[in-house]
Write a structure and sequence with these properties.
Distance between the termini: 40 Å
Structural class: alpha/beta
Order of helices and strands: EEEEEEHEHEHEEEEHHEH
Mean pLDDT: 92
Strand content: 15-25%
CATH topology: Metallo-beta-lactamase, Chain A
Radius of gyration: 17 Å
CATH class: Alpha Beta
Shape: globular
Helix content: 10-25%
């Protein structure tokens, strides 16, 4: 059963188990209450009765966001249950998910008007992941899926091996294998430089623990190879 965790200032998160290629990496969504009371759901998890009840208690879901080309597995389920919500996704997802209605392409240069002054978008260019990250101003939080992972350890031996091989066992960072997703270092460096100009300290990520403070320093270290 999901349990929303409040981080204050209109930001909540919820986690669920997730196995990917046999690895126990889990996943996390973020929910933001916008100034008018509408909800923004970032990287939605599977929607069951418990999740639905907790989210509905916060307000009406008006935005469902698939932030990159891989965090979209449960978006269609949310669209079916909340048909009035706008669906936001990267441009390349339409080809990958023709079954998913997409209303808005995530674009930092033309963000959704209802988010103005509350959410700042940064398109991370140069990576195969096609991710757009979001800074929630009120909580000074960066909402991201795959920029980094943050696992202290794992009870699952193959997952523990994955973390150790990737150099991220017991510390936040970018797995060595995920560096292969970077296809244009200059473009990605420029994207990160734009991101680091924004005001945030916490980082909400999909895999591992929320990084409650010091997110900028962690990102600088994780991407020093650029």
């Amino acid at each position: 059963m999901a349990r929303l965790t409040s981080h204050g200032d209109g930001l909540w998160t919820a986690t669920q188990p997730l196995s990917f290629l046999g690895l126990h990496i889990g996943t996390r969504m973020a929910v933001v209450r916008l100034s008018g009371g509408d909800l923004y759901v970032h990287s939605p998890i599977a929607l069951d009765d418990a999740v639905r009840a907790e989210v509905d208690a916060l307000g009406p879901v008006r935005h469902v966001v698939a932030p990159n080309l891989y965090h979209h597995l449960h978006a269609r389920q949310w669209v079916q249950d909340y048909p009035d919500a706008l669906v936001h996704a990267p441009a390349g997802l339409a080809k990958k998910r023709p079954d998913l209605r997409i209303d808005r392409v995530l674009d930092a240069t033309e963000p959704e008007p209802s988010w103005a002054g509350q959410l700042d978008l940064v398109n991370i260019e140069g990576s195969m992941l096609g991710e757009t990250v979001v800074v929630h101003r009120a909580s000074r939080s960066l909402l991201s899926c795959d920029l980094i992972e943050n696992f202290r350890t794992s009870d699952h031996a193959p997952t523990r091996w994955y973390l150790k091989v990737g150099g991220i066992h017991g510390k936040p960072g970018l797995h060595r294998l995920l560096r292969l997703a970077v296809r244009d270092k200059r473009a990605m460096r420029a994207s990160l430089d734009r991101l680091l100009k924004h005001d945030f300290d916490r980082m909400v990520l999909a895999h591992g623990d929320v990084l409650e403070r010091g997110a900028k320093d962690v990102l600088r270290e994780a991407y020093a190879f650029l």
